[in-house]
Amino acid sequence: MSARRALGYRKGRAANGEDPRKRYPIYPIKGGAPTLLEQRDEVAKLLQDENYDGDIDELLKRADDIAAKIEQANQRDARLRALKAAQLPAGDPAPDTRREQPGMQPDDKGNEHPLTVAERFIRSKALEEYRARGLRGESGAVSFEQRDAPTGTVTTTNGVPTRPERQPGQIPQNPDFPLLIANLLDRQTSSGNTLEYVRDTTGPVSGPGTWNKATVVPEGTMKPQSGPFTWDTITTTLKTVAHWVPITRQAADDDGQMMGYINGRLTYGLEYQLDRQILTGNGAMEMQGILTTPGIGAYQPEAGNTDPKLITLRKAKTQGELALYPPDAVVMNPLDWQDIELDTDANGQFRVITSVTDSGAPMRIWGLTVVTSVAMAAGTALLGGYRMGATLWERQGITILMTDSHADFFLANTLVILAERRANVAVHTPRAFVKVTFDPAAA
């Protein structure tokens, strides 16, 4: 008899007739395996059972394996406690424990780039908790809000707006291209859903119909009164721009694919529609578009005029300056900007000097920032002092929602990612804008 048998251990089953190998397999089952301590106690109980008639060699092997795993866990915990107790010498930088995601790396100078909506959503606590729940649940929608920083600022990784460092005489290495129409406006935040503002409909500051009666007054005579001043009180609401895309549950677990959906589809779609609303919104069910606002200026060459578009823009700029609202930008269709850039004189020389090697170079003409957009009808342009003439009010930036509670998406392992924003445009000084029509008027 072996020493093991001498100790009273025999092959066979437990006293209750159950084979322990069916209860606790050697390889744990995910989500239902007993802990190491539970396995240890069970094996010890079987070793002490005089009626056990199972494979004692296998049982002893299990006991050795469990003991080795417990020892390994104890060593790991001891080293972890020692690591946490260790301190860096004075002056040494603390280790960076942040989790890097695709597209989040600093630039070649070590400066962290402004976070996109997708990056902030990927890093959000809400998404982490939703993934921990298995991306399931009717009430498990993930909500995350991204507000734009004030104009002229960028947002660092900690969310604090800071002004970018700019070296004298140098153009920033990463210009904001393509420039959005929304970026031309003064941008403000609203705390309510109703927007009320005053629109100045007073006549021009000079020329016929002017409100400005200021003049030199001889001594002892009455001073003139300026006016009349007219104002329209505009009451409207912030409008919601939204859309959604389906995404598989597997793609939702992949940060790279998630960022592609949010930045490449959802955010881009909202910005594209916002530009259209700023220009041509009807002011009723849609936002108030600048082109649909009564009182904006207009310029069109006279019948028979043969000025190229380049010259037409310059004359329209003068009209804005005479209204005492100096233009700072012009929005036009890409086809019209193409005509201007390719315009040549009698000698075949280009009239406009542009960089053909740097696609990100700022576009300018006659000192004006140029924004091209297919939202602007070909053959027309909108020139104006955008910051003086209109304000973009936003109650919330881009909000990202994610849920599986839609139609039969739960059964199809599919999720919804929805993006929306609430905003409207207050065109408070229509005379700051001039709509340009390039074709001459009909004879």
Helix content estimate: 25-40%
- Determine the CATH topology of the domain at 186-211 and 227-437: Major capsid protein gp5 fold
Summed up, the helix count is 11
Q: Which CATH class of the domain at 186-211 and 227-437 is shown?
A: Alpha Beta
Low-confidence stretches: 1-15, 20-31, 91-104, 138-142, 148-177
- Cα-to-Cα separation, first versus last residue: 122 Å
CATH superfamily of the domain at 186-211 and 227-437: Major capsid protein gp5
Secondary structure elements and pairings:
Blueprint lengths: L2 H4 L13 H4 L12 H12 L8 H30 L31 H7 L1 H8 L9 E5 L7 E2 L5 E2 L23 E4 L4 E7 L30 E7 L1 E10 H4 L2 H26 L16 E3 L9 H14 L6 E4 L1 H8 L22 E2 L2 E5 L7 E5 L1 H4 E14 L10 E14 L5 E5 L6
Parallel strand pairs: 4-13, 8-15, 9-11
Antiparallel strand pairs: 1-13, 2-3, 5-6, 7-14, 9-12, 10-11, 12-15, 13-14
Helix pairs in contact: 3-4, 5-8
Report on this structure.
It is a single chain. The chain has 443 residues and is of the alpha+beta class. It has a domain at 186-211 and 227-437: Major capsid protein gp5 (Major capsid protein gp5 fold). Helix content is 27%, strand content 20%. Strands 8-15-12-9-11-10 form a six-stranded mixed beta sheet. Strands 1, 4, 7, 13 and 14 form a five-stranded mixed beta sheet that branches. Strand 10 and strand 11 (368-372) form a beta hairpin. Helix 3 (36-47) runs antiparallel to helix 4 (56-85) and helix 5 packs across helix 8 (255-280). The chain is elongated, with a radius of gyration of 35 Å. The relative contact order is 0.14.
